[in-house]
Write a structure and sequence with these properties.
The protein is mostly beta strands. The protein contains no helices and 18 strands. Helix content is 0%, strand content 46%.
Length: 196
């Protein structure tokens, strides 16, 4: 068990207490994902990306400009693709991919559409066809990472509103997207809304 408040604290069952992990001074962790090996990729609202290595208990912060790293401080959500690749989406409409050879995040794609200056990407899911469904403050995006092509769905496509803050995949395979006006569910394989 890990607690992510004011740093990373790991639960010690023998003492029934949480102990701060090594060099973890990260604060305000907003979201995280387990990479399948027990390691955590975490994002802070304005402090960027952190990696917690379960094996040695160390924490690494990824900083723009250090090495080949291109990821900034304003990151919304981490997610894994079907092959275990690590991705991040940024509040600056960037999609970042982790490159294990350089141990850095590279800008994979920047969404550039009208009115994107006010766009924050907030969460993402991968469908069985390999596309990423990304929530944002201006609509839902269906992004094909192979072709780097993008479809945008808004109220003009029949959605409740244009601002979706969360995304979850249900056991049925349906995607659930949350907004201030409620939830919508989409079968990503059959969805045929008109893109804008």
């Amino acid at each position: 068990i890990v607690r992510l408040v004011g740093g990373i604290y790991v639960y010690d069952a023998s003492t029934e207490s949480f102990n701060k992990s090594g060099n973890s001074n990260c604060v305000n962790i907003m979201d995280f994902v387990d990479d399948g090996a027990g390691n955590l990729w975490m994002v802070s609202y304005t402090k960027g990306v952190y990696f917690y290595c379960r094996k040695d208990g160390n924490v690494k912060k990824y900083v723009r400009g250090k090495g080949n790293n291109e990821i900034g401080e304003m990151v919304s959500s981490p997610f894994l693709d079907e092959s275990g690749g690590v991705w991040m989406i940024g509040r600056n409409a960037n999609i970042y991919k982790y490159d294990s050879l350089t141990d850095s995040f590279l800008t994979y794609h920047q969404i550039a559409l009208p009115n994107m200056q006010n766009c924050s990407l907030l969460s993402a899911l991968q469908s069985s066809n390999g596309h990423f469904w990304i929530t944002s403050t201006v609509g839902l995006f269906d992004f094909d990472p192979q072709k780097r092509s993008l479809n945008m769905y808004t109220t003009n496509s029949g959605l409740l509103n244009n601002s979706f803050t969360s995304a979850r995949k249900l056991s049925s395979g349906m995607f659930l997207f949350g907004s201030a006006d409620g939830f919508i569910s989409i079968d990503s394989e059959k969805f045929s809304g008109n893109n804008r």
